[in-house]
Every structure is written in C-alpha cells, then in structure tokens.
Amino acid sequence: MAAVTAHQTTQKTLGTANAAGGAGSTAAAGETDAPAADHLAAFDAAVAADERIEPRDWMPDAYRATLIRQMAQHAHSEIIGMQPEANWITRAPSLRRKAILMAKVQDEAGHGLYLYSAAETLGTSREELLDKLHAGRQRYSSIFNYPTLTWADVGAIGWLVDGAAITNQVPLCRCSYGPYARAMVRICKEESFHQRQGYELLLALSRGTEAQHAMAQDAVNRWWWPSLMMFGPPDDASSHSEQSMAWKIKRHSNDELRRRFVDICVPQAEALGLELPDPDIRWNEELGGHDFGAIDWSEFQEVLKGNGPCNDQRISQRRRAHEEGAWVRDAAAAYAAKHAPAQTSPRTPASASASAQTSASAQHVEETA
Ligand SMILES: [Fe+2]
Ligand SMILES: [Fe+2]
C-alpha cells in the first residue's frame, strides 16, 4: 500500500471543497476548481519527496505519455525477446537445459503481461499497444533483431542481455510511477535467474571441449557490442534522458549504467575464461572503473531503422502469432459472455452453490476496491 502522497492529499481536499460547493455553498464559481499550477506543484513536490505517483493521481500529460512509451517499449521487448531463444528450445542439448530454457522464455511472457497491465493503468489498452507494435509505431529493444546462430547464444543472451537488462532495470524498482516500480521488483528477481543460467551455461561450454569453448567465445564476440548498445545512445545524444531523470522515472544516465555494466562483466568474463572483444578495455584508476572502446553507433541506428539482421522476421512472426492466437482471444471472450448470464439463470443446487461463491467473491472485490 502506497503512502498517501502530498498530491493525493491536495486532490482529497479539492474533492471535499467540490462536494461542499455542490451541497449549496455560495462560494464563487471557479474557487473550487484547482488551478493547474496547484496540481503541478503538488506533483512536483511528491516527486521531489520520492513518493510514488499512483494511477488516480494527477500527472502532467507529458509524464503519462513518456511512461506509456517507455512501458510499452519495455513490454514489447519482453515478448519479442522470446523469439531468439525459443528458436533453441527444440534443440537444447539435454532435458535439463530444455526445461530451464522453457521456464526462462515463459518468464519473459509473464514480464510482458505485468508490463502491459501496468501500462493499462495509464489509460491505454493492451490491444492498442499491440496494434502499435504490429504497425511499427512503437519500438522494442534493438538487441532482439540479432540472430541466435548457435546454442552458446542462449548462454550469451542470459549472461549479457539479461545482465544488461538487470543493470538497467534495478533502478526502475524506484521509479516514481508506482505500478511500474512494483512490476519491476518481480521482473528483476526473475532476470537475475536468467542471468545466472546464461553464465552457468557459458561456463560449462568454456570448460568443455575446444570446439565448445570456441563456440562460447564466438557468441560473446557477437553479443558484446549490441549488449552495450542496450543502454541507449550516449548521454549527449539522448533526447528523453534529462526529463525522465527530473521525473525520477530514470535514476541514472545511459552512460553511467553502461559503465557500471562493463565493470560487472570484466571480472565475470575472466572467471568464465572468455575474452570480451574489446582491446581497449582497461582499468582507469582515476575513475575507479573501466574504460572501453568506441561503440559503432551507426550499427545501432541501422538496426533501429529496421535494417538489422532479423527485424522483418521478428515483427512478421509476432503478427502471425497474434493472428493465429485470435481464436484463443475469441474463445476467452465467448466463455466470459456465456459465463456471465449463467449467474442469473434458474438455480440448480450445484449452480446455486457456485453462484453463491461468485457473489461472495464479487462482494469481496467491491469491499476491498
Ligand atoms: Fe524479462
Ligand atoms: Fe530475462
């Protein structure tokens, strides 16, 4: 339960004033409407005090739009991200690896679900967001436009891609928007499992035969740079960063998080017995972190524009899955429609008991809403 925020208090006060006005107050018209500046001041104060903004709170339109854009992109990334790894489920080298990979891919579907639900609290619908994804009007993380060529790619994705996701997402658990922050807590716990399974998979390959070691190294070579790009453009070229940080949606800059990720990966690569494909990585005593080589941002821009190796494949497979899943949505809607009137139909002893249970839960929902 979130603490009552300063702006909620303001809204409650205004609500009381409005009710009083409606009950016959002779206060001049307009006095009871909060000026927009008051709402904004209350919102700013809540953000400054590190309080959570909740769905029913007043918020600036641009804050709402930014959150919808970011949460939608995040949700889309979770479900598109299922594709490159699902590619290996049928070819996993053992039953154990297959079970782990299936669980991981299923987790990603769940992450999409939490995030679409959290985005819906801002007044959009999942259908609308999916339509935008399918029409190319909303993005997903460009990392998922790279192919998974060998089994070692499953390990490299877990270690590097899920690892980068954790570095990005742990600070989001303190995001100013309550439903997003709370969704991230569970997501981060699961991402942590994903990262460890990738690391363990790569470790097994690295310590295996010469060919297995080479396969692990090749996967790391291909996924390293795209993983660094996951943090987004450099700070001086990031159009949304400054405002997102002022709103406390974002807590750290792209470059800061990227550097933190490199610092985490360097000792881990050493423990894995694998090399990071960057000869310029070296410890910088003054900064207390690692320096690293220049990122090829032209590649990032090309992939963003749709020219990555798998852009077309990913989006067409997503559209196809959506179309092929239409019968499931139709069946669920038909079931819901059929189930609703059943509660008011003449009672048999069995249905009466079921109906009593349903009404009891409905009442419970009403009481706790
Ligand atoms: Fe995820
Ligand atoms: Fe993950």
- The termini sit apart by 13 Å
- Assembly state of the chains shown: single chain
Mean pLDDT: 86
Query: Per the principal axes of the C-alpha atoms, what is the gross shape?
Result: globular
What is the number of E strands? 2
Taken in chain order, the helices and strands follow as HHHHHHHHHHHEEHHHH
Largest sheet: 2 strands, antiparallel
- Low-pLDDT stretches are 1-32, 347-369
Report the radius of gyration as a whole number of Å. 25 Å
In helices, the fraction of residues equals: 55-70%
Number of helices: 15
In brief:
The protein is 66% helix and 2% strand. It has 369 residues and is mainly α.
Structural overview:
This protein is an all-alpha fold. It is built from 15 helices and 2 strands. The chain has a two-stranded antiparallel sheet with strand order 1-2. A hairpin with a 4-residue loop joins strand 1 and strand 2. Helix 7 (152-169) packs antiparallel against helix 8 (178-206) and helix 7 runs parallel beside helix 9. The chain is globular, with a radius of gyration of 25 Å. The model is unreliable at 1-32 and 347-369 (pLDDT under 50). The structure holds fe (ii) ion (FE2) (2 copies).
